[in-house]
Write a structure and sequence with these properties.
Layout: E1 2-7, H1 30-34, H2 37-41, E2 48-52, H3 56-66, E3 70-72, H4 94-103, H5 111-126, E4 131-136, H6 138-149, E5 166-172, E6 177-185
Parallel strand pairs: 1-4, 2-3, 2-4
Antiparallel strand pairs: 1-5, 5-6
């Protein structure tokens, strides 16, 4: 079974705020960013199951590439930043942000909460057959890949996932393991 992890494209965020589960729209030219994906996804054939979280930025992308045939699963939602939703990114250092991810955001989630959600979502996929495209945020893709590598989620900062990129996992039924085929392929590095 193949699972493609598709990061939503750039959001319109002129004030550079932390998003978390807050809903900001995609950039207007978002379809330009992922038009190259048809070359990767079209050979998959049918059936492909498209899964997205309920954020507008992911649903808009899912709707566009799946011709409105997608499933919403909030196990793949971005981390809930609680009081830090829409907080100015310039007012928090990278180390503070990573500290909150580990310990938990006030009135929000921590990495263990997110890890449980992601495991639940991946377990649902693993219990089925076919090919899947999961449309989510770069952070959730980082969390998924770090879990597959059995690396602490505290290391989220070392894994680069671009907006509008695709990564691929294979699920091996025999070993009950997700294997990584490729990470962070985008229109700029696919050549």
């Amino acid at each position: 079974m193949d699972i493609y992890l598709l990061s939503h494209t750039e959001v319109y965020n002129p004030n550079q705020v932390l998003l978390g589960q807050s809903d900001l729209p995609l950039e207007e030219n978002f379809t330009n960013t992922f038009s190259w994906l048809s070359d990767i996804l079209s050979p998959l054939g049918e059936p492909i199951t498209y899964i997205t979280n309920s954020s507008r930025r992911c649903i808009k992308l899912a709707s566009s590439i799946s011709k409105d045939k997608y499933i919403v699963d909030d196990n793949f939602s971005e981390i809930n930043l609680g009081d830090f939703e829409l907080y100015s990114a310039s007012k928090i250092s990278k180390n503070e942000y990573l500290d909150y991810i580990e310990k938990g955001f006030p009135n929000g989630e921590n990495i263990n909460d997110v890890k449980k959600r992601i495991r639940k979502g991946l377990k649902k996929i693993a219990s089925r057959s076919g090919s899947y495209v999961v449309i989510t945020s770069p952070n959730i893709i980082r969390f998924i890949i770090l879990q597959c590598l059995k690396v602490s989620l505290k290391n989220i900062g070392v894994l680069e996932i671009d907006h509008g990129s695709i990564s691929k996992l294979k699920y091996d039924n025999k070993s009950n393991t997700f294997l990584i085929s490729f990470i962070n392929i985008n229109k700029n590095n696919i050549k």
